Amino acid sequence: MEGVSNGGMLYHEVQESKLCAVHCVNTVLQGPFFSEFDLAAVASDLDRTERQMMVQGSGDFVPEESHNVSLDGDFSIQVLQKVLEVWDLQIIPLDSPVAEPAQIDPELENAFICHLQNHWFCIRKVNGEWYNFDSLKPAPEHLSKFYLSAYLDSLKGFGWSIFLVRGKFPKECPISSSEASSGYGQWLLPEDAERITKSCNAAQRAGSRSGQTQWQSVPYRQYEEQGMLLDEEDEDLKAAIAASLMDAAPAVSTKPDT
């Protein structure tokens, strides 16, 4: 029997600005492997390649706006694919023919990535147990194997795009907690994650009884409302990503090679 990974601990990142794509990638990998600047650099490379292909094909001027990252930190699926390819992981749409076995028996897989509007999160199997690593949650939320299938079906019903992640996942995080660059990641024992989740759920129920506002149960409404609260925190992030894109992307010729 294989030993547990990362000493049996779970790696979770709590939402920072609109960096859910970064949180999603890191929780898939179970460690603080990438920062928003790493993803911005990948997005810049993709944009540069796309512009070069368009220029060579038409010879027309190509606008400089990015199709792979917005200034508020939302990244495209292509960026997530490129980043995870570093670890030989493949992202496959769940509705594709090759993913049909995962549609029937999702519990036999290891990870799913979910996306709707501007929000990304992952559902990951760690040490044989499934968890929802949504960065809008204070801790990973345990999912039974039976509920996993029902939950994925529910997400699909609400319009979420779901991707299967396959490959050889890292068994251990090579980055120590003191070396981690992000301040929003945390390592939790499963029992600590369960305790935090139960405590927050109890607080939400108490708030509901006292008339305080709760998040909508419909997933996309939850993220819309959360996004409103996060907008005020994004100005520094926008400036940092814009600077990163400018540094990483040299000017692209508007004329095809002759």
Output the radius of gyration. 20 Å
Poorly predicted tracts of residues: 213-218, 223-234, 248-258
Strand content: 15-25%
User: Helical element count?
Assistant: 8
- CATH fold assignment: Cathepsin B, Chain A
Secondary-structure element string: EHHHEHEEEEHEEHHH
Protein name: ubiquitinyl hydrolase 1
EC number: 3.4.19.12
InterPro entries: Ataxin-3, Josephin, UIM_dom
Domain Josephin: 7-180
Describe this structure in words.
This protein is of the alpha+beta class and 258 residues long. It has a single domain, classed as Cathepsin B, Chain A, CATH 3.90.70. The chain has a 6-stranded antiparallel sheet, sandwiched between helices. A two-stranded antiparallel sheet has the order 1-8. A hairpin with a 2-residue loop joins strand 3 and strand 4. Helix 2 crosses helix 3 and helix 2 packs across helix 8. The longest helix has 23 residues. This is ubiquitinyl hydrolase 1. It catalyses: Thiol-dependent hydrolysis of ester, thioester, amide, peptide and isopeptide bonds formed by the C-terminal Gly of ubiquitin (a 76-residue protein attached to proteins as an intracellular targeting signal). Its EC number is 3.4.19.12. Pfam families: Josephin.
Report a brief summary of the structure.
This protein is an alpha+beta fold and 258 residues long.
